[in-house]
Amino acid sequence: xxxxxxxxxxxxxxxxxxxxxxxxxxxxxxxxxxxxxxxxxxxxxxxxxxxxxxxxxxxxxxxxxxxxxxxxxxxxxxxxxxxxxxxxxxxxxxxxxxxxxxxxxxxxxxxxxxxxxxxxxxxxxxxxxxxxxxxxxxxxxxxxxxxxxxxxxxxxxxxxxxxxxxxxxxxxxxxxxxxxxxxxxxxxxxxxxxxxxxxxxxxxxxxxxxxxxxxxxxxxxxxxxxxxxxxxxxxxxxxxxxxxxxxxxxxxxxxxxx
Length: 258
Hints:
The chain has helices at 15-28, 43-48, 75-81, 102-115, 132-140, 152-169, 189-202, 216-223, 234-253; strands spanning 2-6, 33-37, 62-66, 87-91, 121-125, 143-148, 177-183. By secondary structure, it is of the alpha/beta class.
């Protein structure tokens, strides 16, 4: 199973939106998905569990537990032994405070997911801070997807994430693979141009070539829980093509466990 961590240490950059869209993209491709929502704001949980299973059965996530279960050393084994759906979710828990001791258990659970064939891909939506799950995933996830807005502070935080990756790699046998840096929102033209120039100079090897612009189809997808791959408008079709370009490039860069 491939595991994907979605992270930037800044809120409001579209991290959860990117994680949701990537999960729906994997479902469109027919892959079995386990979504793990570590963000205590519960944004992904609220969207994915509101999708109408009768209208959009391929994109409706079935809760199979919560992130608290990952602090139980035996949970992953029980999950694999149970019945799996095509799209399952471990839901977020509001205002939870993980202990430092939870880090090792969460990392072990993430490694167990990577070694299992119960799903094709596990997607970890993280909180925008350095908590125990984030530390654990820097030590155990296969791949890292970094979303950012074209603004100076987001750019600075990309550097922080790369430093955290370097620290986490010290305790890994195989370095964490960066699947892509995705610029995912539009800003005033001059601001965007100047920051993109910084990104292109600073991180050309990880920058995904297509920019994702936040617009009406994505708003409908998130606010109304209508998967973007099911929206009928021509605008949505255009957005789907854009997302398919982004995520196909991300998938080409992914490290797949052997």
